[in-house]
Amino acid sequence: MRPLTPEDPRAIGTYRPLARLGAGGMGVVYLARASGGALAAVKVIHAEHAADPAFRARFRREAAAARRVGGPWTVPVTGADTEAEAPWLATAFVPGPTLAEAVAERGALPVATVRALGVRLARALGAAHAAGLVHRDVKPGNVLLAADGPRLIDFGIARHTGATALTATGALLGTPGYLAPEQAVAGETGPPCDLFALGGVLVFAATGHRPFGEGSAPGVLFRTVHEDPDLRGLPAGLRAPVTACLAKDPAKRPTAREAEALLSATGPFDTWDVPGLNALIAERSTAALALPDPEPLPPGRESAAPEPAPRPSRRRFLTAGATGAVLLATGGTAWIATRRDRSGGAPPGSGSRPTYTLGLHADLTGPGAAVGLAHRRGVLLAVADHNARTGTAFRLALRAEDDGGTAAGAARAAGRLADDTTVLAVVGPTTDAVPKAVAARYAAARLAAVVVAAGAQTPGFDETLCVIRPFDPDLSTALIHYLARTHPAGTVRVVDDRTGGTGTWGVTQEFQDLRRSWVTVHTVRDGEDFGPAARAARADRVDAVVHAGTSPARAARCAVALAEAGYTGTRLSSGPALGPDFLTGAGAAGDGWVFAEAYTDPSAAPAARAFTAAHRARFGAPPDRWAAEAYDAVGLIARAAESTSAADAERGGIARRLFLLSYDGISRPIAFRTTRRVRAETGMFLYRAEGGRARWLGPYADV
Questions:
Q1: Domain that holds residue 65
Q2: pLDDT tens sequence across 94-141
Q3: Where is ATP bound in this sequence (predicted)?
Q4: Which of 197, 311, 508, 608 could be stapled to 138 by a disulfide with Cβ–Cβ 3.0 to 4.6 Å?
Q5: Helix (H) or strand (E) run with residue 688 in it
Q6: Contact between residue 671 and residue 683 where contact means Cβ atoms under 8 Å apart
Q7: 43 annotated to bind ligand
Q8: Residue 403 catalytic?
Q9: How far, in Å, CA of 6 to CA of 3, rounded?
């Protein structure tokens, strides 16, 4: 919102303007208060356009169209005067951002939210088409995001199906990139045009990029007509309905109702989780309600129209062009493009902070989606906190790529982030191990990948692969400390579970390197159960049993076997074995087990209290594992960008700088050895299983 200017009206019909919401070549949109006190968005057309009979006729049609289209996913018209000197149209005020603003600020939306977006927009278009109307300008800027779902707005160029166009021959109405091919060549328009645009909107919402690229309007229109859409990063579940909508042949596109059915069939569509939306709506609502009451009008004056805006001088026009505004005219239609610097920030010389883009490489839809979502939420909170601080030299933006938890998906995600030269560094991947091909791709692009969750080492790529957690075998250090200092044990039996996974050998070896008289090993091979090992532990009266394995289900079987054998000594395992399958599978036999893990519990850690509160407020739930570490990964990258001039020139500088930093995060202090390995002693935590849940005990050295 911007303050009113002296040229703005003080009354528009029965509405009293409070602030400017936006302005363009056609008119100005005001936040206004109705006579009854309700807030409204009032669009006032410039007088020079209103003097054009064809334009005025089109505006009459807009008002009539907007009144005819109902349903929950459009914005109701609350008033209009199409015959005024400066015609105006009022609708209910929606304090949410546009889809374009939300994606630009926060990155692509979750796949379930995109599905909900598509279903509801399809319903809005279905209502319009049933009323005999075609919107003709469905785009991210015409989709408002409310707390309960989207709202399709601006029927400014909608028209009755079969009606004669009121524009000049060959003129285009709509937005390149979302125009259907038949619109791009000034052919016949109808409901299929809106479905094509819907497909483009869903691509943008799910990936953050437009289906036919950026650049000049003629180039975008050419690609729309002759080339396939760019569906990189589009989740598999959305590919079929989106591809159907983007068919070049209008006859092959679904109707609005068919598109709704296609989207509904791909998965649940009742999830409306737009990161940061509730906070932004609350902020905008508070700002709107805090505006002062309008000044009293002069006696006898109930309405006022805005004064015609003065025509810009040639000098003023050229000055605007020099600072980034470029006018593109094709086919009788004009579009404004804004020149941006390489980082995605404001134009040089504008005085605004530049914006650096962070990549998030995560499994958001595959078997590791829970961990990927935790990363995403932690990163979003970190970006928001950074941007809210005063005195920072730059802003942060986020581009998320979903790899679906597959090797092929991971390679594609890494390629997209590496090829995007605006991406400064990456958080992720979020899988248990970083594929060598992914590490090599980031290394070739000199793009730092700050890894939060992967517990297995990827050798040979230390230059840009920055792992901020100890690897799983290193967790044995915390277990040894516990048995030596916290709960001393005279004898230790390691149950080496050979069916548990790749992490077994490292833990067993760490214990075997200790005094042989203190540690003995009982190997459980593939296909064997834990009964003999459990009975031997009790018979030998060992003080502690350490399960060396990576399977929570196998660890649960070990716990049950020990309980059945009557063993009551100390029982431990490393983090990979701590999971729901252990807590539910072991039952009461799991109570008292102690685990070493590499992630903190932000709900219990004092340093993460503010983060936990912010997470609950924004997402309605406490943070899951790895969320706090993902938050710290962003802080580490931002610190590197602040402390090197390479931040705005090359990625390699950031990659090198990361390993030289010490960063005091909310999950742990982060520092690195000369070998570029993280100092693990501050990044290991102990948990105890109690009553079917894992209770955080704290950093291992403090327990």
A1: 1-93
A2: 888 899 989 988 889 999 999 999 999 999 999 888 878 888 889 999
A3: 43
A4: 197
A5: strand 685-690
A6: no
A7: yes
A8: no
A9: 10
